[in-house]
Specification:
CATH superfamily of the largest domain: Nucleotide cyclase, GGDEF domain
Number of strands: 17
Number of helices: 18
Shape: elongated
CATH class of the largest domain: Alpha Beta
Largest sheet: 8 strands, mixed
CATH topology of the largest domain: Alpha-Beta Plaits
Radius of gyration: 42 Å
Distance between the termini: 111 Å
CATH architecture of the largest domain: 2-Layer Sandwich
Structural class: alpha/beta
Helix content: 40-55%
Strand content: 15-25%
């Protein structure tokens, strides 16, 4: 003999099995009506509507007969009797469906795609319904062991018994760990809000109350960062629940707050529209307190997990931004983007750029007269100013080596006026250092410029370096090292490019180690 709890679960399974073929009848008949309307075929619609109406009638009979209350009030073993009742109750509507289906099959209407196939599925669903009813009538719930008939149905019952055995019944006063939070209850009936408030506070939640839509909107604006869930009634004077829901879910400040609609309206249109607007759940009144608590707990837990996820994502985003800023401090933005895109080997041949070298004169002597912190502060101020000048004139800082500063103009993206910008920056560097003092010491720098082709690329694994190679770099370095403090020493190539804009003083031709003879120039200022 089945216990009452398992028998109730089996009743639900039977009800579900009976409705499956009926749902197929309703679904296919509705689609066929739509197909006929699309093809302007009005003749079959009347018979299809009768099939659909008969299907709805069968659903009503199933709900009336296979009813949980009837099972509770009746003696054990009632389900077989219910099967006998349903067989009689649906005989007329079932025959109606079969009759109209067979007539429509005779008419054909092959011009409508899948018309005959869908009618055949309706016909098959009627046969499946009859088979399900016979299975219910033939199952002996009082003596399951030893039965050979209806093996499949008995197997289903065994599965139900297994499932029910694994689901612990809910006991009164049972304690469980819940996700508590702040719940905003919205209902124009004060008795409803008062009762819900007491129930939720008993569960450990904090509760806010609103009895109309306008107060609700103000409450959400003021306390949205504290609200973990909204229980929202639909029918309210003034601003109704639909409008409140639409407001919440269309505003990026509030849409993450879960909303459970709590309403006496149980028609499909109302439920569909609420989910369409973004409702997280829909509970009809009167509700089961245990189920409502479970839904509240589930939504608050999901909301808190999303809040944590949001914090984690923001942390990741902040760290990513820091790392990108660091990368941009080390590398030119165009090179950094190529690395981020997955390029592993970056090496470019640039045909025409200008390289600038600057060096502090008598740095060794200067360093002896300054403390370590003063020396570093001095270099930091000077080189930070040079960095600012690079940004102003469009040069790319390459590196500093001790007291030497290297920058490039016209890289990594080509700039036809690279020499002009480099010389302008060099002039401002001289102007700045001439005015810079460290104690009693005046600061002087030498600057050298040369234009030509180079190879540029990124080297390193953990510490990336964007560096330049080639004779152009070497010559620019020689221009600096052989220059005069406070002067800008340039190669013939640079002078030739800028002679119409600047005045240069020619130097004697000189032999440079590793390069050969070169004629060079000082900028005349």
């Amino acid at each position: 003999m089945l216990d009452k709890r398992t028998e109730k679960a089996f009743l639900g399974k039977v009800r579900h099995n009976l409705k499956n073929p009926v749902n197929a009848i309703l679904g296919y008949s509705e689609m066929l009506i739509e197909d006929c309307e699309d093809h302007n075929k009005s003749d079959p619609i009347s018979d299809l509507e009768k099939i659909n109406s008969a299907g709805h009638e069968i659903v009503l009979h199933i709900d009336e007969i296979f009813n949980d209350d009837r099972l509770e009030k009746g003696a054990p073993g009632q389900i077989k009797k219910f099967g006998e009742e349903i067989e009689i109750a649906i005989r007329i509507p079932l025959n109606s469906i079969l009759g109209y289906t067979e007539m429509l099959l005779e008419d054909g209407h092959t011009e409508i795609k899948n018309f005959v196939d869908d009618l055949n599925k309706i016909h098959t669903s009627c046969q499946n319904l009859t088979t399900e009813i016979k299975s219910v009538i033939g199952t002996n719930l009082k003596n399951i062991e030893g039965q050979s008939e209806h093996a499949e149905e008995i197997g289903n019952l065994s599965i139900i018994q297994e499932v029910m055995g694994s689901i612990k019944p809910i006991k009164g006063g049972e304690q469980k760990e819940t996700s508590t939070g702040t719940v905003l209850i919205v209902d124009d009936n004060e008795n409803n809000t008062d009762l819900l408030q007491k129930r939720l506070e008993k569960e450990g939640h904090s509760v806010l109350i609103c009895n109309n839509g306008r107060d609700t909107l103000n409450q959400i604006k003021d306390k949205h960062d504290k609200i973990d869930l909204i229980l929202l009634d639909i029918i309210m004077p003034g601003i109704n629940g639909y409008e409140v829901l639409k407001y919440v879910k269309s505003d990026e400040r509030y849409y993450h707050i879960p909303v459970i609609m709590l309403s006496s309206m149980d028609e499909v249109d109302s439920i569909y529209r609420c989910f369409e607007l973004g409702a997280d759940d829909y509970v009809t009144k009167p509700f089961d307190t245990t189920i409502l608590n479970a839904r509240i707990d589930s939504n608050i837990e999901k909301k808190k997990l999303k809040d944590k996820e949001k914090v984690y994502l923001q942390t990741i985003s902040d760290e990513k931004e820091k790392s990108e800023r660091l990368l941009l401090n080390i590398l030119p933005i165009e090179i950094a983007e190529r690395l981020k895109a997955g390029e592993t080997t970056i090496a470019d041949k640039l045909d025409d750029v200008t390289i600038l070298f600057a060096d502090v004169v008598n740095f060794t002597k200067l360093s002896k007269s300054l403390s370590a912190s003063d020396l570093v502060n001095m270099l930091n101020k000077v080189f930070r100013t040079f960095d600012d000048l690079c940004e102003i004139h469009g040069l790319e800082k390459i590196k500093t080596i001790g007291d030497s500063y290297m920058a490039g103009s016209g890289l990594p993206l080509h700039n036809p006026n690279h020499a002009f910008h480099a010389l302008n920056m060099a002039m401002e560097m001289i102007q700045f250092t001439n005015q810079f003092k460290t104690g009693n010491n005046k600061l002087k720098i030498r600057i050298g410029l040369h234009s030509g082709p180079i190879v540029a690329g990124v080297i390193g694994k953990k510490k990336f370096v964007y560096d330049l190679w080639g004779d152009t770099v070497n010559i620019a370095s020689r221009m600096e090292s052989s220059g005069i403090p406070g002067k800008i020493h340039v190669s013939h190539t640079v002078m030739h490019q800028l002679k119409t804009d600047f005045d240069f003083i020619s130097c004697k031709t000189k032999e440079y180690k590793g390069i050969g003879e070169m004629k060079t120039y000082f900028l005349n200022v």
